[in-house]
Amino acid sequence: MPTTDTAPPVAPAQADPYALRAEDARPAPASFRDRLRHLGPGFVLSAAVVGSGELITTTALGAKAGFALLWLVIVSTGVKVWVQMELARWTILNGRTALEGYREVGPRIGRLGWINWLWIGMDFAKMFQRGGIIGGTAAACSVLWPVIGGPLSAGSLTLWAVTVTLAAVLLLQSGKYSLVERACVASVIVFTLITVSLAVGLPGTGFGYGATELGSGFGFDIPAGTVGIALAVFGITGVGADEMTTYTYWCLEKGYARWAGPDDGSEERARRAAGWIKVMRLDALAGLAVCVVCTLSFYVIGAAVLHPQGLVPEGNAMITTLSRIYTDTMGPWAEYLFLVGAVAVLFSTLIGSTASVPRLWTNTLGMLGVVDWSDVRSRTRTIRILTWTLPLIWTCFFLWVQSPVLMVQIGGIGGGIFLLAVVVAVWRLRHTGVPRRFRTSPWMTVALAVSSVAILCVGVYGVLETVGVVTAG
User: Fold this and answer.
1) Please, which residues bridge with residue 112 across strands?
2) Residue 271 dihedral angles phi and psi, to the nearest 5°
3) Predicted pLDDT of residue 87
4) What is the CB neighbour count within 10 angstroms for residue 16?
5) Whole-number Å distance between alpha carbons of 195 and 46
C-alpha cells in the first residue's frame, strides 16, 4: 500500500502544501517502480468513492434494472478519469486548486465564477448524499449492535448516526488522519476482495449468470422507470465531479505541485513538472482500477441476486435488503460479514468527505474574502471549525429525510449536473493554463475528447429525461 506522505520532514515555513517554493523542488522519479512509491491521492479518492455510489446506488440500480444498464456502469467508471487527469495536470503546472481554476471560467458573478456558484448549489445537494452515507453507516451499526428500541428503530438510528459522525470528526481532529486513511483503504480492499469473490462465484449458486445476461447489458438503452437512478449512478459512480475537484487538493497536499516547483520558465522546471504529471497519471489510473472492479462487482451482484427476487434497497431497510446478497448465497452467518464490511466501507467514505469538504468550503470562503486562504493559521482554523459543523449538518439531513438510498440519489443527480460544468472548465483551463508542450500527446487529447462527449451526451440525456418525467407527472 503506498504511503500518503513520502516527503522528508520540512521546516515549519515550508509546511504549507499550497505554497510553491523553489527550495522544495525535487526531480520526479524516473522508473516505474519509483513512481509507485509516490502514489497516494488516487487511493485516498478510491477510499472515499467506494461506499455510497458502489455499495448503495450501484447495487440498487442492478436490483431495479437487472443487467440492462451494465453498459452505463462501465461508461460511468471508465470515461471520467481523463477529465480528472486533465484538471490535476493544470493544478500541478499552476500550483492552484480546482475551485480557483473554476473562477477563471467566465462569466463572473461577484467574486466567483458561475461554476463556483454551481458548485455551491451542488454541494447543498451533496449534503443529502453525505447524510445518506451517515444513515447507511448508522443502519448497519443498528442491525449489528441494536440499541434503544432494537434494530433500525428511530432511537437506535439516531444514536448511531450521532456516534459515527462524532467518531469521524474526532478521528480527524486528533491529527491521526493518516492512520485513519490507511485503515479505511485497507477495509475497502478487504471488502472489495470479498465482493469480487462473491460476484465471480455466483454462477455456481442458485443466482448464476452467463454470457446471455452479460450481453443483454450492452443494449445501450435506459429502461423505463430507471432514468433518475441511472443519472445518479452516472454522477456518483467512479470519480464524480466533486471527487475530481477534491483530487486537485490531494495532489497539492501530496506534493506533486510543490515538488515541481514554481514556474520560472526554465527547461529544468518543465522536465520536473512533466515527471510529476506522469506520477499523477499512474496514481489516477491505479485509483480507477479499484473503482472499476468495485463498481462492476456490486452491480452484477445486485442484478443477479436482488433483481430476480424483486428486492430493491429502499429507505432505512436498505442495509437488510443488501445483506440478502450474502445470506441468500452463503447462509445466515454471512450477514455479520456483510455488516462489518458495510460499516468499514461507508465509514471510510464519511472520513473522505469529512476531510475534503471543509477544505473546499474554506477555499471558497477565501475567494469570497471571508478568510485568508494563503494564511496557514487562518486556513487551518477554518478547516477545523468546518470539520465539526458540516458533518453535524449532514447528520441532521439524515434524521430529517431518513432514506439513505434517496438521499444518495439526490446527491448523485446534483453531481451529474455539476460534472457538465467541470467538462467546460477543463477545456477552458487546458487552453489558458497548460503550455503547448504539455498538450502534444494526441492519444491523451482523443481520450479527453471521448470522455467529454460521453459525459455531455449521457448527462444532457439524463437531465432532459428527468425534466420530461417531472413535467409529465
Assistant:
1) 109
2) -70, -40
3) 95
4) 18
5) 16
Residue 224 identity: A
The interaxial angle of helices 70-79 and 267-301, nearest 10 deg, is 160
Q: Which three cell numbers stand for residue 228?
A: 433518475
Assessment of whether the complete model's pTM goes beyond 0.90: no
Which cell goes with 187?
Answer: 477495509
Helices vs. strands in the chain: H and E counts, helices first: 19, 2
Give φ, ψ of 431 to 5 degrees.
-75, -35
Of residues 112 and 61, more confidence is placed in 112
**C-beta separation of 92 from 261 below 8 A:** no
Structure-block grid coordinates of residue 245: 475537484
Q: Per residue in 376-391, pLDDT tens?
A: 889 989 999 999 999 9
Question: Measured between alpha carbons, how far is residue 240 from residues 63, 135, 327, 351 in Å?
Answer: 22, 21, 31, 17
Q: What is the pLDDT of residues 301-316, one digit of tens each?
A: 888 888 888 777 665 5
Read off φ and ψ for residue 203, nearest 5 degrees. Answer: -55, -20
DSSP code for 23:
G
CB 266 within 8 A of CB 120: no
What 3-state DSSP class applies to 127? helix
34 contacts: CB under 8 Å, gap ≥ 6: none
- For residue 216, the SS3 value is helix
Which residue type does 451 have?
S
Beta bridge partners of 109: 112
Spatial distance between the Cα atoms of 403 and 413, rounded to a whole number of angstroms: 16
Contacts with 297 (C-beta within 8 Å, 6 or more apart), sequence order: 192, 195, 196, 198, 199
DSSP calls for 352-375? HHHHHHHHHHHHHHHHTTSS-TT-
Q: Return the SS3 of 4.
A: coil
Q: Coil, strand, or helix at residue 112? A: strand
